[in-house]
Amino acid sequence: MIKNILVIISVFHFSLSSQTIDYSDLKNWAAHSLKKDFSDSISAPFNEMKIDGRVDVFFLYPTIYVNSYNFTKWNTEVDNEKINNEVDNRPILLQSTAFNIAGPVYSPRYRQAHLDIYSVEDKNLKDSVLNFAYEDIRNAFQYYLEHWNNGRPIIIAAHSQGSTMAGKLLKEFFEGKPLNDKLVVAYVVGSAIPDDYFTQLKVCTDSTQTNCFVGWRTFQNGYLTEKIKNEKFKSVVVNPLTWKTEDNNFGSYELNKGSILFDFNKIFENLTDAKISGNVLWINRPRVWWSWFYPTKDFHQGDINLFYQNIRENVLTRIKSYFKE
């Protein structure tokens, strides 16, 4: 019922909110090289790791607009203070910092879609709502390229809805385009990526490959959602402990260099293992005593954080490989 009402509301919302966001204004960036923000943070255990600094990171954060907010329109406003505060304190601090060892992080605020759009059956509505959000990403990236990139190599990093946006961005700006030569790697995490989604952009098949992309979705060993069970396509899955793509590829607990969960300055070593199984990445229950009281089998929120240090080290590996090439 609420979704039917929102279809009507959203038409009105689009007419009110169709103006282009001014991305020359730093307030419309959650992270930017020209201001101090949470993406500059370095977890205490990593203070001695040297920032490479030669590569820009364009980070697209996950869905924050969920049912705990006043759900009256499909796309949130860019100046929603509550959502922006949550973006800054969660994905910018806890996720984007896994990539800041490369160099400055740029993360545009965008009028993201409500989480429920992913369960809507009306394809036209779903496409309209997600494309509306993508236009902000597109405009922000175009402005970044024209004013701040200065020809530097780029890492695209994204999670969840951010990865939906990243897929569109990679298709429009990178795949088969000269800019692909500037792509060190794309981390497109927490979203299904059909193996035929890209026609030219390749999946990374080892830890050193560049001009390619990786992705995975994390669940407890043996668990699949009904939606995933019904997927009619093969999804790209790369194991972030081994950076391999083969089905059943396994990475042991000992390969997990460090996870960051809720406390930004606390590292959990050897917290999980990881194994590719079909369209997903399976992990056994994390090695902390309270994990037995953690009810979920869907570790979507930990897609990046469970493998934080492995990602961080892999960023450096691929940068070195990129410049060597």
Walk me through what this model shows:
The protein is built from 6 helices and 11 strands. The strands form 2 sheets. It has a 7-stranded mixed sheet, with helices on both faces. The chain has a 4-stranded mixed sheet with strand order 8-11-10-9, with no helix packed on it. Helix 2 links the parallel strand 2 and strand 3. Helix 3 crosses helix 4. The termini are far apart. The N terminus is likely disordered.
Describe this structure in a few short sentences.
By secondary structure, the protein is α/β, with parallel strands linked by helices. The protein is built from six helices and eleven strands. The termini are far apart.
Strand fraction equals: 5-15%
- Radius of gyration, taken over Cα atoms and rounded to an integer in Å: 19 Å
Q: Whole-number average pLDDT?
A: 93
Helix-strand category = alpha/beta
Tell me the number of structural domains: 1
- The total count of strands amounts to 11
Give the CA-CA distance, first to last residue.
56 Å
Helix-strand sequence: HEEHEHEHEEEEHEEEH
> How much helix, percentage-wise, in residues?
25-40%
Features:
4-stranded mixed beta sheet; alpha/beta; 325 residues; disordered N terminus; 7-stranded mixed beta sheet; 13% strand
Question: Which helices and strands, and how do they pair?
Answer:
Layout: H1 2-17, E1 29-31, E2 56-60, H2 81-94, E3 105-108, H3 123-149, E4 154-159, H4 161-174, E5 183-189, E6 202-203, E7 212-214, E8 218-220, H5 226-229, E9 250-251, E10 274-277, E11 280-283, H6 308-324
Parallel strand pairs: 2-3, 2-4, 4-5, 5-7, 6-7, 8-11
Antiparallel strand pairs: 1-3, 9-10, 10-11
Helix pairs in contact: 3-4
